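Agenda item 2: 6-aminopyrimidin-2(1H)-one complex prediction
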Amino acid sequence: EHQLHDDPFASNISILSRLLPPALLTPRVGIVCGSGLSTLAAGLHGIVEVPYSVLDGFGYSTVPGHKSILAFGFMSEGRVPVVAMLGRFHPYEGHPLTTVTYPIRLMARLGVKSLLITNAAGSLNPSIPVGTIVVIQDHIALPNLTGMNPLLGPLFTPNHTRFVPLSGAYSRRLRREAFRAAHTLKLPREALAEGTYAWVSGPTYETPAEGRFLRAAGGDVVGMSTVPEVVAACDEGLEVAVLSLVTNMVVVPDGYQSVRDEVEAEISGQTIERPSTPKVSHEEVLETGKKRGELMKNLIEKLVSSL
Ligand code: CYT
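Presented output:
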């Protein structure tokens, strides 16, 4: 099996070594900031922002709420050098999965050992309301099972392995640290939940029936990102944590409404209560990101301090 490139990182490492002080060139922690969560990097000390446009192999994030910047800086009172992606790439923008995952592989090459991924997601679980931060413990990726796996194709390098196990993809240590961080921050118990992320390609939001399908399959939240990055991170041997901010409800109790029942009730002179079907918008997603961004930021900072 052949390699993709001779060294797909050499040019970027030489670009970065010209832009960054040496201490920032080898970050230990990588952070991916999801929709409306780019403020996560606002508190970085000694921040150096590198636009994706000056790097090779990076796309441009076209989604509102996503910048296209790699931010380097220190967290935890200047102790931990981190690199944060402000804006990620999604397959629905037309980016090939190799582009979606390339920044993760670059982070690994720079020396990142732990990857913290955030995203905005819809809730499939009626007991997980809007505003909750879900510590992801597993995923269901229909695209991975049906021909859209990010590792399809030649091995990234001959040193990569062909069959990557994903049973331990979501680091137990980091999940524990997330709940410890929440305790230290005195967050109410209901601020955090644990759950399974269902990955869909988007860009359409799920239909109500698709939401029920993913719920029945064991999903707690649904989103259009993250899994390709997690898979690449596992391929690179990184320790991964994923925090999903719930921005909207997808599955609601009694979500299925029979119009026949409604009409029959009307004909027999009754009126029946009709729960409204939620209709999600990207504005709603960004709004929740703005409201809960501070909480997500505090949690990430605590988590990084514990690493
Ligand atoms: N919401 C979201 N689906 C949703 O309903 N943020 C992503 C995907």
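Discussion summary: Residues 10-305 form a domain with the Rossmann fold fold (CATH 3.40.50.1580).
Owner for follow-up: CH.
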